[in-house]
Amino acid sequence: MKMNESLHAFDFERHFDDLAAREWFEQNWGASLVLSGVYVLVIFLGRVYMKDREKLDLRKPLVLWSLSLATFSVMGAMRTGWYMFSVLRSRGLRVSVCDTGFFSAPVSKFWAFVFTLSKAPELGDTVFIVLRKQRLIFLHWYHHITVLLYTWYTYKDRVAGGGWFMTMNYIVHAFMYSYYTAKAAGARVPRLCAMMVTLMQITQMFIGLSIVGLLYLWNHDTHCFSTKSNIICASLMYLSYLLLFSVFFYQSYFRRSGEQKSVKRE
């Protein structure tokens, strides 16, 4: 499916070699397993190392880290959102869900690739939590690992629904990392902002499940390509996220309403 040709692509987007990117992931997606193993090891060893040491402040590095990811997410949200809005407006919901041109269209192909790659450096969020001796919850590291494995494995298959999944994540991350940047910089951010970010995350998971459901219904259509394994993995992933984020929201803002809690890093 072709993107609306009226959308303007920058030279670096237009000239990006998406076929080479696909080939790279076909050959290297297994590296995500290694990265996940190293990630777990770093968490364990880091917590052991910091056990009897004073927590590190790291305020300035954290501001730069969060600001970099916020800027990247805003740019990705604008470019992929532009593409998805154009498809949705001109061709309807079904085409937007079943679209696989997202991975090769001039405007979005570069951002699909860097989105997938970005799930590796995003693991660095946890390093700050460990070194600053903050509470590390199951949702945090489970989410990081499963997103990394899912995106790296499925990018090469270019299945339908990818445009929705990536664009939603870019949008949520744009707000989330902007919130983290403000907090790290010492700004007095209303607690309502943290609640709104978590609600956006929950909404993302609900919409993600809905998109997977539509893919299951329309998968018989030759123009709505996906695989059984991808639909199953995406269903389990989004369902687990929806439940975990909902529990986190309740425990953070209602069950312990008197405590100030920071929003979970996605």
UniProtKB/TrEMBL annotation:
Compartments reported by the entry: Membrane
Catalytic reaction(s) noted: a very-long-chain acyl-CoA + malonyl-CoA + H(+) = a very-long-chain 3-oxoacyl-CoA + CO2 + CoA
Source domain of life: Eukaryota
Gene Ontology CC annotation, any one: endoplasmic reticulum membrane
Record's keyword annotation contains Transmembrane: yes
Keyword Ribonucleoprotein carried by entry: no
Predominant cellular place of this UniProt entry's protein: membrane
A single MF term (Gene Ontology): fatty acid elongase activity
Keywords from the UniProt entry: Fatty acid biosynthesis, Fatty acid metabolism, Lipid biosynthesis, Lipid metabolism, Membrane, Transferase, Transmembrane, Transmembrane helix
InterPro entries, per the entry: ELO_CS (IPR030457), ELO_fam (IPR002076)
GO annotation (BP), single: fatty acid elongation, polyunsaturated fatty acid
Membrane topology: Multi-pass membrane protein
Transmembrane segments: 29-50, 62-85, 138-155, 161-180, 192-217, 229-250
PROSITE patterns: ELO (PS01188)
Pfam families in UniProt: ELO
EC number: 2.3.1.199
Family from the record: Belongs to the ELO family.
PANTHER family (alphabetical): ELONGATION OF VERY LONG CHAIN FATTY ACIDS PROTEIN 3, FATTY ACID ACYL TRANSFERASE-RELATED
Protein name: Elongation of very long chain fatty acids protein
Organism: Carassius auratus (Goldfish)
Lineage, opening ranks: Eukaryota, Metazoa, Chordata, Craniata, Vertebrata
Gene: zgc:92749
